[in-house]
Amino acid sequence: MSRCLKSGLAPAIRSMIDYKVSLGYEESTYLPRSHSLDRYCMEHFPDETSLTREVVTGWLERHPGESIEYFHSRAGYARGLGKYLASMGIPAFILPEKFTSGRSCFLPYIFTDSELKELFHVIDAQGSRENSLQPFLLSTVFRLIYTCGLRPNEGRMLKRESVNLKTGEILITETKGHKERIVVMSDDMTGLAASYARLRDAAYPDSPYFFPDRNGNPYSSPWMQNKFKAFFAAANPGVDPDMLPPVRIYDLRHRFASAALSRWLDSGENLFNRLPYLRAYMGHKELSATVYYIHLLPENLVKSAGIEWDSLRRMILKEEAYNNEVLVENAHSETAAFALLFEFDGDIRKIRHVLYNCSASRPKIEGKTNEESREVQTETLTIKARPLASGYVKAKTGNKTSAETYANWYKSVYLPEPKAVDADTEGQG
């Protein structure tokens, strides 16, 4: 489909797409924005063969009703194209990174049980004159994304051969970072997927995709997102759509993660013992990406018996307890330095660590507002480690660490004596 590009910039666009495909990326990932840029160039710069500042800034002008997320997605595409051309020695305008960095400040929307129930009721009740399979397809793919915690593109781009309807296992290949993983559907989800698959096989027997459009290809990401937003609006009748929260399909994945964490907290599970499992299931490269979801659960964390918040505040943040055990923060008091001793769950060697001279910043309270109330969200505590006077920053146990030192690791802070400097070798490189 990239061969349908017609503008003077088309050869450059096709070259980038071919390069990305050679690295293992799906061509369809780049086609919507490629065709959009090509159409813009055909209309405004038909003979321009270079990616100029004028082309980029003109194409990036916000469309009416365009979400900020999709704008940043287009900006990221333009920046990527510019960087690719420059790497090939072709002069091109490279959009500054600041125009592509809008995603990090987006606050996920966590659906309530009643909202999810009403949302899927609306999705199940929809119809289509154009495609009889489409309603069942949307009911299935949105439930699959929610129940398995998939990224939207992982569900949208799912291959037929990747779904084992006998075992309920799904091989996720179209994933962020190109790291394959296997997820397992519930029995109910497996049954629903099997029922949908029978209808799909009758309508599109030759399509390699599990959720094909009428041409046998995956539906585009913007089309899926627009459908989802329309369903959410329909699930909230009488509410001005402009007053509704900016929900995304991705929020179904957020809900999956937060629901899993809530269940573990409510059942008294050790949350940090469970996080590596959630990380593997969701396909996170770093554990920090999984830990992020903890910040979506302030109420659960506050009531969790496993976290002694008051002790932390008194010891580290120097908050004072007055009569009635009210904790009071004094702006003139300095937070205490401390050593952080820990080990990672799942570490076979059970290495124990210590970070010296740590400090914690006073947490900031963040929240969101509506017309009637202000809902406090969470407090974020930032910890930093600085070198001691000796220069030491951290230490950890090793294979030759004595049994006594290892056993007493959490009883007292291990602090090595600075090594004596040999006068004959001092100053040698």
Write the layout of secondary structure elements.
Elements: H1 10-22, H2 31-44, H3 53-59, H4 68-87, H5 113-125, H6 134-148, H7 152-156, E1 163-164, E2 169-172, E3 181-184, H8 187-203, H9 221-234, H10 250-266, H11 271-282, H12 287-291, H13 298-303, H14 309-315, E4 320-322, E5 326-328, E6 338-343, E7 352-360, E8 364-369, E9 374-380, E10 383-385, E11 394-396, H15 403-407
Antiparallel strand pairs: 1-2, 2-3, 4-5, 6-7, 7-10, 7-11, 8-9
Straight-line distance between termini: 60 Å
Number of helices: 15
Reported CATH architecture of the largest domain: Orthogonal Bundle
For the secondary structure, the number of strands is 11
Q: Which residues form runs of ≥5 with pLDDT under 50?
A: 298-303, 364-378, 418-429
Q: What is the percent of helical residues?
A: 25-40%
Structural class: alpha+beta
Taking the sheet with the most strands, its summary is:
4 strands, antiparallel
What's the number of domains?
3
Summarize model confidence as the mean pLDDT.
Answer: 78
Radius of gyration (Å): 27 Å
Instruction: Report the β-strand fraction as a percent range.
Output: 5-15%
Let me know the CATH homologous superfamily of the largest domain.
Intergrase catalytic core
List keywords for this structure.
single chain, 429 residues, alpha+beta, hpI Integrase, Chain A, 3 domains, four-stranded antiparallel beta sheet, three-stranded antiparallel beta sheet, 40% helix, globular, disordered C terminus
What's the short version?
The chain is of the alpha+beta class and 429 residues long. The chain has helices at residues 10-22, 31-44, 53-59, 68-87, 113-125, 134-148, 152-156, 187-203, 221-234, 250-266, 271-282, 287-291, 298-303, 309-315, 403-407; strands spanning 163-164, 169-172, 181-184, 320-322, 326-328, 338-343, 352-360, 364-369, 374-380, 383-385, 394-396. β6 (338-343) and β7 form a beta hairpin.
